Amino acid sequence: TTGNLENNDSKDDTIRIDGDSYPVDDFTNVTSSILSKIKRKLHLRPSHPISILRNLIETQLNDFRHIHAFNPIVSTRQNFDDLGFPIDHVGRNKTDSYYINRSVMLRTHTSAHQLQILSAGENKFLVSADVYRRDEIDSSHYPVFHQMEGVQVFDIAEAKEQVSREITKMGQFNYSSVLISNEDEKDSDTSIDNRKNPIQACHPIEAANSVGLHLKHTLNELVKRLFKDEKELKVRWIDAYFPFTSPSWEMEVLYQGKWLEICGCGVILQDIMNKAERPNEIGWAFGLGLERIAMVLFDIPDIRLFWSKDPRFLDQFTFNEIKKFKPFSKYPASARDISFWVDNNTDFHENNFCELVRSVAGDLVEDAKMIDEFIHPVSKRRSLCYRIIYRSMDRNVTNEEINQIQLNVQKEVQTQLGVTLR
Ligand code: FA5
Ligand code: MG
């Protein structure tokens, strides 16, 4: 439906974004509040933590080409098909992504630009950009965030030699209290689950192992240097799956007692290299979550803070410096529960619920979690209860204000999600 776009001054059947007009259809689900984030470009504001971090990484990887200015509006082909996403991949669902219409969307990741840049012949590049996803609500998820894509390409026939030269050049950084587990397995392939996450059949094993080793070495050295002043930071590698890399891994850091995923990566599917008309080359790619890294580095406890326009937040940061964030007083939280019946024939999706709560409460919502679920023994209807935590990052919110927001949430949930409040 286009009901969410009332504030977008457009005729009913088109959306205007930045002077361009797009037809809407049954897939359209972008909201004006999401579109309003496009112009913020946090990664390009010199003394914003996201931009400070981008710049620090670019300084570490200074012989990569640094790209920042790609439009977030991409085709579904760029975001999915070019990368070999299967037709039924969940990421393609309207519940997970923001669509302008069936064939145009807000990119969900910086990988959307891989093929076009590889096709242009680049060998080493970093793409930093805002990306958009419908997702859950908590302190480490926000519907708009920033990624940095890194890609490096080698000749298949010479990968081993090229990698050992590069690793010698890069060296090892030892003045860091970053502890990386699984690191000593890096020169074997024991950490790869070869059934789900195999070396590609078209790759000589030695070339694939060398490229995987170089990828892990590059990221290990990057995090050791970025986090060198942390007291002690635990980092671990785990196996992962992506439609466009194999083998694939994820990197996680231990933050506030939980493993926080900061990056996905792997050896690029050869099919993508072939589409880029580079069949004799092999490459790796990574996608870093910049907010997640910045949260650890700057001690920023909640992802909403990045969007704050409050000078008490913005004025704490300086170009090229890592300074721990000093929280201005933490305002009290208020919890409200909402319970409803979902009919058997209603297709309820948590991301739709979260989107709705965000659209009513804006950045006052801190967290939303299902706390109870049961099926009525007779009617077989499902009952769900969600606990919503409200808290402002920069002011006290009165109980009356929260009550009013919660009333609006209840009203919208009932009318837009087709559920019955209990
Ligand atoms: C990807 O987006 C892949 N494109 C990464 C990749 C690139 C894999 C190249 C292989 C090769 P993923 O969905 O896991 O993967 O997201 C990458 C990172 O973005 C995550 O590790 C996390 O740090 C961050 N991230 C994901 N969702 C959110 C969110 N809602 N809010 C903040 N950060 C997020
Ligand atoms: Mg992931």
Description:
The chain is built from eleven helices and 17 strands. Helix 2 (49-60) crosses helix 8. Strand 5 and strand 6 form a beta hairpin. It has helices at 32-35, 49-60, 76-79, 114-119, 159-170, 205-226, 270-275, 290-298, 311-314, 350-361, 399-417; strands spanning 14-17, 20-23, 65-67, 73-75, 99-101, 104-106, 124-132, 144-155, 178-181, 233-242, 245-255, 258-268, 281-289, 334-342, 365-375, 382-390, 420-421. It has two domains: 37-72 and 107-314, BirA Bifunctional Protein, domain 2 (2-Layer Sandwich), CATH 3.30.930.10; 329-421, 2-Layer Sandwich (Alpha-Beta Plaits), CATH 3.30.70.380. The strands form four sheets. The protein has an eight-stranded mixed beta sheet. Strands 15-16-14-17 form a four-stranded antiparallel beta sheet, covered by helices on one side. It is of the alpha+beta class and 422 residues long. Magnesium ion binds at residues 250, 261, 264. This is Phenylalanine--tRNA ligase, mitochondrial. Its EC number is 6.1.1.20. Residues 53-327 form the Aminoacyl-transfer RNA synthetases class-II family profile domain.
